[in-house]
Amino acid sequence: MLQVRHPVSRSLRQGDVLLLPCDELPQGVRQEPPENGRIVLARGETSGHAHAMAGDRVCYFRDDGSGQAFVRVDGDAPVALTHEEHAALPVLPGTYRVVQQREYLPRSVPRSVVD
Q: In the chain, at which end, N or C, are there fewer CB atoms within 10 A of the end residue's CB?
């Protein structure tokens, strides 16, 4: 069973992925199907490694209009957010907005951080 180290703070960061708690899903989001039994929140462009969550208690949603992504963990126990280069993080049940860190380089267009 996963241990929760900081149960008071529900915001989580794993590498370039940040999970921000939110009260509910916005209207108009659509549920995305799992990829080989897991929800992939972000994938490294060069390594192909994935920030992912497995299990039937995890649902992933996208808002096509805004491009925002959300993940919901159902049930009473945390689910692990895993990645090949990071320690697994326990994600408490709830709804989260998924934010992928962006990189700013002066005189260029902001881009996703390469993980």
A: N
Please write the tens of the pLDDT for every residue from 65-74: 888 999 999 9
For 88, list phi and psi in degrees, rounded to 5: -65, 140
| Long-range CB contacts for residues 3-6, cutoff 8 Å, separation at least 24 | 3/90, 4/78, 4/90, 4/92, 5/90
- pTM comes to 0.78
pLDDT band, very low/low/confident/very high, at 14 (cuts 50, 70, 90)? confident
Of 75, 86, 8, 80, nearest to 47 (Cα)? 86
Tokens of 16: 């370039």
Tokens of 56: 């039937």
Q: Distance between CA 75 and CA 21 in Å, rounded?
A: 16
